[in-house]
Amino acid sequence: MAVFTPLDDAQVADFLTRYAVGDFAALKGVPQGTENSTFFVTTDQGEWVLTLFEQGEFEDLPFFVDLLDYLDAQGLPVPGPVHDRQGVALQRLAGRPALLFPRMPGSHPSAPNLAQCAALGDALGRMHQVSQRFTGQRDNPRNLAWLRRRHREVLPHLESSDQALMREEIAAYATAFADADLPRGAIHGDLFRDNTLYDGDRLGGIIDFYNGCTGELLFDLAIVINDWTSDATGEIDRARYDAILSAYLAHRPLSDAERALWPLMLRMTALRYWLSRLLVIHVDPPAHDITPHDPARFRTLLTRRLEGEVPPLPA
Ligand SMILES: Nc1ncnc2c1ncn2[C@@H]1O[C@H](COP(=O)(O)OP(=O)(O)OP(=O)(O)O)[C@@H](O)[C@H]1O
Ligand SMILES: N[C@@H](CCO)C(=O)O
């Protein structure tokens, strides 16, 4: 479920009068999502998405609004927040911070085809090209410092071989990334398939920017490759890998340092999700009754990246 704060028609009809989006016609709670309350709203002028923020760092919401405004203005397929008649995007409704977005077309691709992969690589490459000039600032909340700090909390819940794996990996990242000077900019931070919408082969939208931050661009790309190209055994699907990366590199060639650290970044972002999913299960269980994601999936990806050669990056 993803309606933690219910709304009724009258509340939403009244809320919409703040905006120039037409008259209220219908309201529907969205079942997907785990963190915020999401509603589809229909007016006589179109389809909208209303999000009530239930948890997280509310003080970061202005960063997310500015980032989405910026990317939308640059022509990226993201839902630019709707601003009210006074020009304000961030509102309150039912005691929660609230944002209204245009509803983007399409559905999440579970088994993306090569055209869909290329569309994603193209959009991410364009995004990273312009996001280096975005002036907002929010440190990556899932960076190496976070891994080093929080992995200790899950160690008591792991078998000794997994404890050793996690410790050795984090030590290796600390050494390798210590003096690395990788290109930085605004990143999505969680660009899984279920944060995209496709209308056929067309990328209708990239959504859920609430892990958005400023950090190493390669971190974003590695999250994408791990989620979009790995099979159940963690093996990389070479055709999807090439399709995403070729389209991406056409907009933003990687530096020598990025190429050198690519295999390690794939491992570090796999461990990032292994750890965040373990934390949800063992340390910070969600306030709501939600089935947690499986941490073992990312342990599998990590060990696979350690065992096998990562395919070469396209030139
Ligand atoms: N702008 C949009 N256009 C179309 N659908 C959207 C839009 N924003 C959200 N949705 C739909 O609402 C669902 C939940 O949204 P979102 O992913 O932002 O929620 P969440 O609670 O932050 O979830 P999670 O963090 O678990 O992914 C999405 O999976 C998608 O189906
Ligand atoms: N994409 C995350 C969940 C949302 O942050 C995961 O798969 O663990």
UniProtKB/TrEMBL annotation:
Catalytic activity: L-homoserine + ATP = O-phospho-L-homoserine + ADP + H(+)
Superkingdom assignment: Bacteria
EC numbers: 2.7.1.39
Single annotated GO MF: homoserine kinase activity
Domain Aminoglycoside phosphotransferase, chain residue ranges per copy: 27-253
Keyword Nucleotide-binding: yes
CDD domains in alphabetical order: HomoserineK_II
Keyword annotations: Amino-acid biosynthesis, ATP-binding, Kinase, Nucleotide-binding, Threonine biosynthesis, Transferase
Keyword Nucleotide-binding: yes
Pathway info: Amino-acid biosynthesis; L-threonine biosynthesis; L-threonine from L-aspartate: step 4/5
Gene3D superfamilies membership: 3.90.1200.10, Phosphorylase Kinase, domain 1
UniProt cross-references to PANTHER family, sorted A to Z: AMINOGLYCOSIDE PHOSPHOTRANSFERASE DOMAIN-CONTAINING PROTEIN, AMINOGLYCOSIDE PHOSPHOTRANSFERASE DOMAIN-CONTAINING PROTEIN-RELATED
NCBIfam families given in the database record: PRK05231.1 (NF003558), thrB_alt (TIGR00938)
Similarity comment: family membership: Belongs to the pseudomonas-type ThrB family.
Name this protein carries in UniProt: Homoserine kinase
Organism listed in the record: Salinicola endophyticus
